[in-house]
Amino acid sequence: MAERPLTLMAVHAHPDDEATSTGGILARYAAEGVTTVLVTCTDGRCGDGLGGTKPGEPGHDPGTVVTMRQAELTASCAALKVTHLETLGYADSGMMGWPANDAPGAFWTTPVAAAADRLAELIRRYRPDVVVTYDENGFYGHPDHIQAHRITMAAVEQTGIPAKVYWTTVPRSAFRQFGQVMKEIGVEFPEPDGQPELGLPDDEITTWVDVGAYGGQKFESLAAHASQAENIFFLQLGEERFTELMGVETFVRVRDTTGAPVPEDDLFAGLR
Ligand SMILES: [Zn+2]
Questions:
Q1: How many angstroms is it from 148 CA to the middle of ligand 1?
Q2: What is the rounded distance in angstroms from the CA atom of residue 102 to the CA atom of residue 95?
Q3: pLDDT one-digit tens code per residue, 121-173
Q4: In degrees to the nearest 10, what's the CA dihedral of 62, 65, 70, 74?
Q5: Which of 69, 251, 254, 272 could form a disulfide with 207 if both were Cys (CB 3.0 to 4.6 A apart)?
Q6: How many helices and strands, by DSSP H and E, does the chain display?
Q7: What is the model's pLDDT at position 52?
Q8: How far, in Å, is the centroid of ligand 1 from the Cα of 155?
């Protein structure tokens, strides 16, 4: 029914965020002929440096980290066959309360309207039918994830273009299963430390997308970001177990002009 290919836009905070929560959908929809656009808002300078060094430690050079992570992002996009990569280039703000929150060019302290204008320009250029980002807590409270949520919702409002908007989430049942498997293979799984519980009860999730056939590409995308400790943690699962555990990606639909009933198993339900 559409004259142009369907288009998916995923808006993420850092180089590597595209891999875990949306690697499967990016790979699957590209394989189905959908145009995929990844927008990465920050340069990832507060990530791990060479040899696992943390920001502020000797040997952690932000400029080097930015270059390394940009190359990793390019490799990840190749693995997922992302059609267009757009980087907004804001400085990674670090975790909540870090001095980097207020550093010049930090994403967190950039006015929402200014960054949303830039994203709105990309939305007008690519005209995505579906946009995916995080919930208002940025899934786990990272300032750059919260800011990515805010600018995305503002840009969607401003342009009115996407027919459907989704927030990434993880079913609570999957967390339990994940913890179990980690214990079985002897990998220490960090216990929740008084944080609000992550993810959603299964019955609040509107959209379950089977990406099992794309586990290899998703694993390859994550492996492209092997400089970051939290990714090494996932890579320890090995490709087969990783695919088994991460074979379904889940979302909450927060905007819809199609009337497609929920629960649904396709981000483009109602648009094909
Ligand atoms: Zn991130």
A1: 10
A2: 11
A3: 999 999 999 999 999 999 989 999 999 999 999 999 999 999 999 999 999 99
A4: -170
A5: 251
A6: 8, 7
A7: 93
A8: 20
Q: How far are the Cα atoms of 22, 56, 65, 177, 258 from residue 143, in angstroms, in the given order?
A: 19, 19, 19, 28, 32
Residue 49: phi, psi to the nearest 5?
A: -95, -170
The phi and psi torsions of 8 (rounded to 5 degrees) equal -115, 130
Cα dihedral 29, 31, 37, 42, rounded to 10, equals 90
200 secondary structure, DSSP code: B
- Joined together, the tokens standing for residue 248 give 């379904």
Per residue in 52-105, pLDDT (tens digit) is: 999 999 999 999 999 999 999 999 999 999 999 999 999 999 999 999 999 999
What is the Å distance from ligand 1's center to 121 Cα?
23
Cβ-count burial 76-94 (b if 16+ within 10 Å, e if not):
bbebbebbebbbbebbbbb
Q: What angle do CA 121, 158, 132 make, to 5 degrees?
A: 75
Q: Which residues contact 179 (CB under 8 A, 6 or more apart)?
A: 189
The answer on pLDDT for 1 being more than 60 is: no
How far is the C-alpha of 96 from the C-alpha of 89, rounded, in Å?
19
CA of 139 to the centre of ligand 1 (A): 10
Chain-wide mean pLDDT for the chain? 94
